[in-house]
Amino acid sequence: MTTRTRRESIVFHQPFRLRGIDRELPGGTYDVVTDEELIEGLSFPVFRRVATMITLPCAPPHQNAFEMVVIDPEAVRDARQADAGADLP
User: Fold this and answer.
1) Is 83 helix (H, G, I), strand (E, B) or coil?
2) Residue 86 φ then ψ, to 5°
3) CA distance readout (Å), 64 to 16, 21, 78, 83
4) 3-class SS at 78?
């Protein structure tokens, strides 16, 4: 099976929360990785998402380390929308 990986850097301007993560995360740049696999047998290439992960700083006292956590892509979208709304007057 053919897989591809997409990477994206997302900036949060404010501290934020993600569904599935039990702590508030600081604003900053976060790497989001999405793995997709090719659906074979079609006359054109189609990929389906298999997993979405975000790289997070570990909770204290290990905040100098990072962890990659599987996350719902809709949780990332919701957090980005809330962060964009926080910038409005």
Assistant:
1) helix
2) -70, -20
3) 19, 18, 27, 24
4) helix
